[in-house]
Structure formats: structure tokens, C-alpha cells
Amino acid sequence: MGIKFKITVLMISILVISGCSSNSAQPVDEADHSAMNKEDMEEMDHSAMNHDKMRNEHMSHDEVISLNDSTGENELKIPPMLERDKGEGVEYTVRAQKGKTEIFDGIETNTSGYNGAFLGPVLRFSKGDTVKIRTINELDEETTFHWHGLEVPGDADGGPHDSLKPGEEKLIEFKVKQEASTLWFHPHPKGKTAEQVYNGLAGLIYIDDDHSKSLGLPNEYGKNDIPLIFQDRTFDEKRQLNYSAIKNDDGTVGDTLLINGTLNPKLTVKKEKVRLRLLNGSNARNYTFKLNTGDSFVQVATDGGFLNEPVTLKEMTLTPSERAEIVVDFSKIDSEKDLALINEDGSSLLSFEVSDQSGENSEVPGKMNDFSMTEEERNLPVTKEVELFGMMDQVTINGKKFDPERIDFTQEQGVTEVWEIYNKPDMMGGMIHPFHIHGAQFKILSRNGEEPPENERGWKDSISIQPDETVKIAIQFKNKGVYMFHCHILEHEDNGMMGQVKVE
Ligand SMILES: [Cu+2]
Known about the structure:
The protein has 504 residues and is mainly beta.
């Protein structure tokens, strides 16, 4: 179905629903992304406002503004590792704060960050650690500290119930029981997650274990083990992030890519295997990553741990909040050419400069993990059904919007249940919803009744679900508490596409 046809269908539907007179229907200008005049907006009645607002935003789910090509002129910034607080034990202090960042040469952009002006440091834990984190809100509004993918008790999870007012702090404590993986942290306050993440609140968590250290994968942080946080943004003419002006209820996307907060990034590597830990930290954009040479790479890890075997791929998609670790062998790629990581549409995301130096060139082991789905898990009945539906600010789960006072599901601690999640198409054909559950890692049992692809046969905490697709997952919570489950398009989350499971 063509975009224009879908738009026409939608326009007619809106007119029917809102009872607008036909002369208020104006031709749709797909290229018109200009900001609306605020006074004009305030004068309009509500239905006409929505109508006009939608015309200015990407109306079709398929129509997403494309990214500018990265010029590769700036060396990629590598986030610092967060130092432990002095004293015994694994103790950290994480402050959410505001600052100014020079993203564009000579211009200060107002941003937010953890322990710095923009984004955050990497928190590195080992399996078995008992971790204490002093979280401090130095913003001028409420926030929470959510540890995405971490299996923590509900009171440490940082969902919308855990709001800290400006100046408040909270000490959380948990034991790291899960395996080596790349996780992340970001705010999760009710209705304000999208804007706070957009302004820069996001950081990575690395978990190591004895097994991950023995695998022999590239592990020199910042040298051949590189974090890559992908975020698209729109800057105004003063090079500021003006979220309220460009916010889109169906997911805010931008034309400018930042990787680790770096504009036009370039990564210099040796002729060796390099491990890239990718996080889609965008509010709403999906990426399909490829090498511009057409060379393949191997995926070694999913959201929550290593795959059993490396999976050779020529392209890989990540929807918001998903992670993957891949290994690219720069000793095998013709470095005479301009090398880059590109997106599906061909836009350049990250340039690579391959130095003449040869590196360690470690081997990727053939066997990395013993992840399995047992017959018992496959045969479990479906005990939780989730239906994702809607668009813009009319998004729901099982027909309901988030209510902090309502518990949608209960589940017993330590008991595996099968959740069936269905993405019901809307009148425009529907869109991908990346579905995330807090406090646990799950296994994908099936997608539309079929085995998941090889690179999804590992621990996951977020799953992309296509329109009209049904997925089954097996999930067990190791801790007790109230946990969110929601769409990770952050505007959908803020608009109420979220529910709560109480684990007891
Ligand atoms: Cu969604």
C-alpha cells in the first residue's frame, strides 16, 4: 500500500471521526516539516490542531526522515569508565545533571548527562558483585534511574514509581547474578522519559564474568572493544535540542546522527578483529546496519548475553533499546577503500580509518555459550497475553493506557511463564513496536509460530514486533517487585503504552 493511499485513508478517517467540515481538509504536503506557528496552534480547536499537527509530522509510519551522511571528520568519543567510590566494595555515585556540550565546533548546546554534561560513563560490574549505587538527582525536575536489562529487585529498578525530586538521592543495592552482557541505564519518569533521554541521559553497563574473560574476544576497552550508542537528533538553528518543538507522538526522529554524542564520527582501528557493542539509544528510529563494502561480520551477543555460536551476517537490525555485539575483522577488509558502517538506506553512520598497524587478531571462538530452550519451556501454555495497538497518543496495551495504580499481571518469582505478544495493525497498516520488560531477560520461543532467527537465540530484554506479528517469549523473574513492560518507542511509553507486572 502506497504512502499517499495510506495518508488519504487516514485523512478520511480523521475527518469522519472528528466531524471536520470538508473545507478544512487541505492537501497533504509530505515534504512540509516546518514548525507550526504557536499562536496559530493555540487558536485552533483540539481536533483541528491534532489534524494539522499530524500533517506537519511524518504521517505515515513508513515515512521517516532520512539521516544526513556522516562526514567522518571527528574522532569517535569513547565514554569514560566510572570509577568506584573510595572504600571497600562495589560502590558508585551516579548524578543526573545538566550541562553544556560542544557538539558543533565553537557552539555550546544545552544537554543532560550522568556525572558529566552529556550521556554517561560506563558502569562495569562482575557477576557475583554486590553493587551499591548512590543515585542523585541534580536536575531541576523529577527523574528516575532505570537499569535496562539488569535483573534487580523492583525497588532498585527505577521505574516511574521511583521518582526522585530535584536534590533528592537514593541508595540502591543489588547482587549481579546474570551473565556477561552489555546493558544500559536511562531515566524512566512518568511522561518525561522521552525528553530526558533525548537531552542526553543514557549510559552503558558492562557485566563481565569468568567465562567472558576466557573467550578471547577483543576486550581492550576503547581500542578493539568499542561501545557505540546510536541516537538521532534534530538541532534547531541555534544548534539546540528543542524537544518540545520537534516532538512527534508517534516517535521523535531526527536527521542528525550522534554516536556516543559525537557528530560525524570516525573510528580509527588497527588491522585486527574489533568488537563493536551497539546500542540503539534512539527514541524511535530503527537502524539496519551494514558495511558499505558488503563484507560480512559476526554477531556474538544479544541484549543479555553471548550467542551459543557467532552468527555471520551482512546486515543486522536494532530497534530502540536493543543491543548487539558484533565483531568486524578489519584484517580481512580491503582498507584501500573508504570504509563505513552504513544504514539500510545507504546513509553513512560511522567511518572507519584502518591504520597500517596489525593488532592481536584474536579468534572468535566457535562455541560461546550454552543458552538453550528446553522442551518443557516450549510446551508451556500461554499464561499472559499482550496486545499492542494504536498510534500517536492513542497507544494502548490490551486496550488500556498506563495507570500507576493498576497492576496488570502478577507472576511468581522464579517461575517461568510464556507471554504471547501481538502487534495489532492500525488503520495505517501498523508499525514496529519494540517491546521491553523490566527486571528480567527472556527467551524468544517463536515469531509467528516459527523459530526465531539465529541471531535472536540468546537472552533478550527487548524484542521488535512487526505489525500483525505474534511472538511468544519465556520469562522468569529472579527478584520480586513491580516491573514495567512497555513499548520502547519512548513517546509511545510516555503516551501510556505501558503496563505493570507484580512479581511476588
Ligand atoms: Cu510503540
